[in-house]
Structures are given as C-alpha cells and as structure tokens.
Sequence to fold (534 residues):
Amino acid sequence: MTPSEGIERFIRPDLITFGGYSARKSPETLEGKVEVPVENIIKLDANENPYGCSPRVNQALATCSDLSIYPDNGQARLRELLEGYAVVNAKHIVAGSASNQLIDLVLRLFISKGDEVINCVPTFGIYRFSTELCGGTLVEVPRDENFAVNINAVKAAISGKTKVIFLANPNNPTGTITPQPDILELVDTGLPVLVDEAYYEFSGQTIVPLVSQYENLMGLRTFSKWAGLAGLRVGYGLFPPKIADYLLKIKIPYNVNVAALVPCRNR
Amino acid sequence: MTPSEGIERFIRPDLITFGGYSARKSPETLEGKVEVPVENIIKLDANENPYGCSPRVNQALATCSDLSIYPDNGQARLRELLEGYAVVNAKHIVAGSASNQLIDLVLRLFISKGDEVINCVPTFGIYRFSTELCGGTLVEVPRDENFAVNINAVKAAISGKTKVIFLANPNNPTGTITPQPDILELVDTGLPVLVDEAYYEFSGQTIVPLVSQYENLMGLRTFSKWAGLAGLRVGYGLFPPKIADYLLKIKIPYNVNVAALVPCRNR
Fold:
C-alpha cells in the first residue's frame, strides 16, 4: 500500500518516513528478558542521577493537596520560584515538561517547513528529532577531532533559511565545553542561539547571566540530572522576554504537572 | 517595530498574531486579589473534580521509588494497564500528558500548513488553539439551536484540504451528546474523526468499542475529570493501530511523567 491509499493519505507526507527518537530502554521493559531482577537493575545509559531524588520530594507529594486542580497556565508562582534558583528575573523564564518539551517549543516558534537548524554533531538526539517533527531541515556541522565546535564552520553553514543554532554545553554525549567567547561569536550573527545547559550544575559554566543582554540568546536547564527528577519531567528555559512571551502563548496549556511543581515549592 | 525587524523576523510569520489559549485562572494567581483566602477558594470553572483524587494517590506517591528514572518511552506497562481499564487492546492505546497533548499530537500528525480542520462550535477551545499552532485552518460549523451537530453541514464543509473532524462528546461546554449513528455518518466520509470523550465516565456513551473496526476513528479520554487528577496530567487516546504507531513515533520522548503513572499502577 502506498501513502496515497488508506489512512496514510491524510498524514503529513514528511512524517511517513519520519525516523522517531531512539530512546533508552526503561528497566520495566527488561523485566523477564534479563537475568537480573528489575529492582536490581542500575541504569547508566541515560545520565539519570544514581542517588535518586531527595526523600523530601516523596514526603511533599504525600501531602500535596492540589493534584486535582489544573496548574497555573501562566506559571506565575513557578517562575518566581525558579527566579530564585536561576538568579534571572522571572520575565525571562518559561518552564516545561522537562527540556525536551522546551526544545520542541522553541523550534515550533521559529521553524516553518524548509527552514534550517544548525546542529553541531555528535550531540543530543532530540535536536534532530524536533527539527524534523517541525518540518525543518537539519544542517549538521561536525565537531573537530577533540569534539570542539568549529565556529567558522558553523558561521559558514548559515543560509537565508537558518532560524536556530543549537549548542549543548557541556555537550552530550562528549562532555565538551564550548568557551563563552565562541558562543558569543555565534550570538553576534543575530540568529537565535539555544544553549542547552542540562549539565550546568556539573560544569559550573553558564551563559544565563547574559540572557538579559541579548535578544537572541536562550538557555535551557533541567531538573532531570542534578536533582534526580528525570521521571517528574520538569525543566526551564531562560529567554529574552519577547521570546518568553511568545513561548508562553504557544505552549500546550497546563504543560507542567502539579507533582513537578512540588519539589520547586519545597526546596 | 514591524515583524521584519529584531528577533521577530525569525519567528514563524503565522505565530506573530497567534491568539493563544484563554486558560482558567488558578487559585494561586488570585492570592491577595480576592477577599477569600487561597485555601478556601473552590474552583468551579474548569470542571475539576470537587472531591479531589483518591487519597491512595498521595499514599502511592509517598513511596514511589522511580521519580529519578525516565518513564518508558514506549509506554509498554502503562498501555497494558490502560487496556484493562478501557477494554481495548493495548495496540490501540497512546497515553499523553493529558488529552491536551494528544489533541496537539493528532493534529501534528495530520496537519500541514493550510490544511483544514472541521470544528463544531461552540466547543472546547483547545481544538482551535492546536489547529492554529499547527498551521492549519479551522473550519467552523455552528451547532443548531439545541447545540446538536448538524451532520449535513459538517459534510458540506468538507473540502480537498480537510484532514480532521473534531467532535467533543458529550460536548464541552454545552453537555450535548451526538448520537452514534451521526458519528458513524462522519466516519463513513473516510476522514480522520477524533471523538473527545473527556466526560465519558459521566455520560456512559462511547465509540471506543468501535475503534478496532475503522481505520479513521479515534477516541480521547482523560483522568483529569472523573479521577480528579487534572494536576497530574494524564490522559489516553484510542486509535487504529497504524495511527497509534505514528503517534508513538512523533510524541515528545518520555511524555507521561512517572507521578502520573502511579495512580494507574495502584488502582
């Protein structure tokens, strides 16, 4: 059957061959398939925190009284709480159901079909996934033999269709740090630059204090790694206020679940 | 400043004037603005369950040991658990961060820029929101004076660009039920028909047992209403297996948080 027949004739043509995302296996899917009992499996392939989260998270969830109420769609209290942690004014902050959702949201804001996204490979797989899901074209710029970003090559890859430059810093999976002057050279192109700082708490390096100085510099953070909350799905981004306002408008309503707010309220 | 200047020149042109979603206010945003203390506010405008969720949800969250681990991206165990509740084979099921996310996901699968979505107004606002976010065009077919769907008018509104027909059943906010023969008349057009059964547990009427018989009939359910879990963000859809496979491939990885799985595991 070709896509022109059956239900597939209604599906977006570019999604018929979409490859999806190659996710790490969860322990529960290995139950009975490996000799180790599921409760003894220690996952090491998704950079989850091996110490788990604070026991105070479970304690706070035990008494959480608003599981039946929609979270505030405007994230007012959550953005205030994150302001204290990120040391950036709340007007710059948008929270997401982990940074995966924010990566997708940023791309939905900028990418029309055929627009280009520059990606410094090898790097985190979600950038490719969401670019293709948004109908964009991924332009891959290989890192050098030390996995450093080749800034000149990135600048040479910019075209009239380029809308976003992605940079994981430190990079996943290579651990490489891109120096701040190199990042600012990309910001000086004027193009939206998204710096994914999922591992900031381990590297100590960040562009976040600079976000208020540029109209095109964006940072992403997550609670999945350092806080041991990969399962709760909570992350946040730091954006120029104009971009933050657009993102708040286009995000799916009530995107951050109430349980994910609990650790932020009780830290 | 016009959109051709500044950062807005990189934003999707159709999103510059995007209206967003008009969400209900959460109690926390009213703190200090009304005379009632926040803990005494009873929300009635978003159809949350006034009795809250089962106290067993908090008990189970108190001992949940996998908050630090990514949920299974393929939702294998969750789909099995939902199979038992929905009485539909797991291959038909896709779970989401509540049905808002599934509505958006279905539209992302079918809608390219300029495609049309038929909406029977007045109805739930998310259908408009996600159609416009996906670059689609909403074709509104007014309900009659009793808020019944005018099936002939819907069929007359179908064009070569129509990709999805939406139907909330019972309808939100009118409570109107569309009889099953009318729904099947729409299904017989061959177009993808999405029946949103968010209030199924209150109406008792459902198309879900028919999902396995058609390649274009889809149903949506949520735990936000009957189960009092609006804050946890968990819902599911019933789809023809071919559509379910596509949706699982294009959904944001790890889309259902671990806390939202807890009530499903412990029911």
